[in-house]
Give the backbone structure.
Amino acid sequence: MTAVVLPPETHQFKLGSCTITVVKDGASILNNPWETFGSNQAPDTVRKLLAQNFLPTEKLVNSYAPAIIDTGSDVIVVDTGFGAAGRARGLGRFREGLKALGYAPEEVTVVALTHLHGDHISGLMEDGAPAFPNARYVTGKIEYEFWTDKAREGTPAEAGHKTVLANVVPFAEKMTFLRDGDQIISGMTAMLAPGHTPGHLVFHLESDGKQLVMTGDTANHYILSLGRPDWEVRFDLDKAQAGKTRRRVFDMIATNRIPFLGFHMPFPAVGFVEKQPEGFRYVPKTYQLDL
């Protein structure tokens, strides 16, 4: 019997006059969660928090969720997933999901990148050509300058440097480099949120009075990052700064009761947060945005 390959998971909702669609690019299983999250904690401390939240203690699922914002006049892709580089591992399914939803890659008018790690930029190219040939591109000025600097050679960031040279630099002439507070389109603003990477951005979207914050990798796990925002994360380049940024960004989201879309949150990656003494409680989206 031939196995049936289903399209990747997708989730769609309205935000004012915009249609937001989240696509599951794939998921990975990580062993020994304490090596990634809470790397400055005792392993048993991490295990205990996972167990308290009904999660396995020895393994962790990390999923990836690029998104599409359809304003009626623009089709904006926010981060691009792994692309062809991830397909041998069951990743890189964003392009497939885009087509399943009825979007042609040529229809994409803007590609907005929260930061330049491989799981966010490797879908920019397809078979050696631009995956979204008619788009303009936006990313952080600080971010781009950091990853393209030859000073990354011979450092732990060298692999990321090479990935950016291959996937992002070819678009430099079509790219707008953003600073804190710059507008991407009307109603969509970039906010500097450094720590995970030096120029990491979050995007604030407002349409007809409705708001959404696209937090990228500001927090990468709904318990271990949001519940304990000060715990160090292996993937954060500046771990102390990343903790401060997590608190600042999610305090704003909690205080204003704004939904957010986090690239690595449990699919469909959209939810709310409530302030708690040690951090934040994650509340997954159900039907709040459907009524």
Observations:
- Residues 10-284 form a domain with the Metallo-beta-lactamase; Chain A fold (CATH 3.60.15.10).
- The two ends are 42 Å apart (CA to CA).
- The mean pLDDT is 96.
